[in-house]
Amino acid sequence: MNLSLEVPTPLEYFASLVQSDTDFPLLEAAICLAQDDYPDLDVEQVLGHVDQLLARLKRRIAADAGPLQKLRVLNQFFFQDLNFAGNVNDYYDPDNSYVNVVLQSRRAIPISLAVIWMELAQGLGLAAKGVGFPGHFMLKVNLPEGQVVIDPLDGQSLSREQLSERLQNQGLPVALSDDMEIPLGLYLQMAPPRDIIARMLRNLKEIHAAQEDWPRLVSVLNRLVILLPDQWGLYRERGLALAETGHIERALLDLENYLQNTQVAQGHQAIALRVIELRKSR
Q1: Neighbours of 217 (CB within 10 A)
Q2: Residues 120, 133: contact at Cβ < 8 Å?
Q3: In whole angstroms, how far apart are CA 68 and each of 58, 141, 145, 168, 209?
Q4: Confidence at 185, pLDDT banded by 50, 70, 90
Q5: Residue 128 CB neighbour total at 10 angstroms
Q6: Per DSSP, which regions of the chain are E strands?
Q7: Backbone φ and ψ of 128, nearest 5°
Q8: Cβ density class 20-38: b for 16+ within 10 Å, e for less
Q9: Run of H or E residues at 242
Q10: What distance in Å separates the CA atoms of residue 155 and residue 79, rounded to the nearest whole number?
């Protein structure tokens, strides 16, 4: 008997990973984001690379080490010995969002560094989570001594005053004690894995849109639509990008889907006119 096993496409593989929020494989899903630019990417090999780093790290941890000691050793290993850091020379390079590249270059943006760091932290049994902090993704670890908020660019722990200052610099209301302002804790809520992958994809979306790289923009939007199927604005964005690539029928499907599933609002008329234009151009 001849058995033929169909290999899933990268999008099908991604869809299988993100279909449920139960046991969402954050690192694996993050690695998959590079498959559009690196079609020969071996996801298992990249996962194995991180496993090897974790094994090296565990050899440095004493058997009786507590959470705080584990955190100190992890930060020494990640930021000092391996020299992971922010890519200040080319912050908007898409490779900063690709785990396979980051593991080689050791340079990235905060959220990509955070995903790798969290995998190592959780492998040590630390209660580490990502934080969707405005403008700059953060990490937090719950220790017996209290909660620590860490900047994934350099491993520095940030005080409440430093975090508040960052928010105020962005014009966001925050208070340490005044009940009339938004409490700092609301900005430090844990980011679920689905939100983390969405933020990584939106970073790529902004880069490709700014460069008017329509094919790569469509590829990113394909993943966002799979990840967040009920966010109809994504269909609008993908439809407009598809139109730029000349895929008129697919563009019409997305734009009509958007119009049918959203209430009339500002910008609706412009999309309706674009649909009419695309129909005439067929």
Answers
A1: 25
A2: no
A3: 15, 10, 8, 30, 42
A4: confident
A5: 23
A6: 85-86, 107-108, 127-131, 138-143, 146-150
A7: -105, 135
A8: eeeebebbbbbbbbbbbbe
A9: helix 232-244
A10: 7
Question: How many Å apart are CA 74 and CA 61, to the nearest integer?
Answer: 9
Classify burial at 100, counting beta carbons within 10 Å of its beta carbon; exposed 0-12, middle 13-18, buried 19 or more: buried
| SS3 state at 141 | strand
Measure Cα distances from 230 to 130, 192, 212, 225, 226 in Å.
24, 17, 25, 8, 9
Spatial neighbors of 113 by CB under 8 A, at least 6 apart, are: 84, 85, 86, 102, 152, 153
First to last CA, the chain: 47
Tokens for 21, please give them: 């929020």
Q: What is the pLDDT of residues 245-280, one digit of tens each?
A: 999 999 999 999 999 999 877 788 999 999 999 999
Compute the 3-state secondary structure of the chain and give helix, strand, coil in percent, each to the nearest 5. Answer: 60, 10, 35
What one-character DSSP code corresponds to residue 34? G
- Cβ contact 273:239 at 8 Å: no
Q: Alpha-carbon distance 122 to 128, whole Å?
A: 6
pLDDT tens digits, 37-78: 999 999 999 999 999 999 999 999 999 999 999 999 999 999
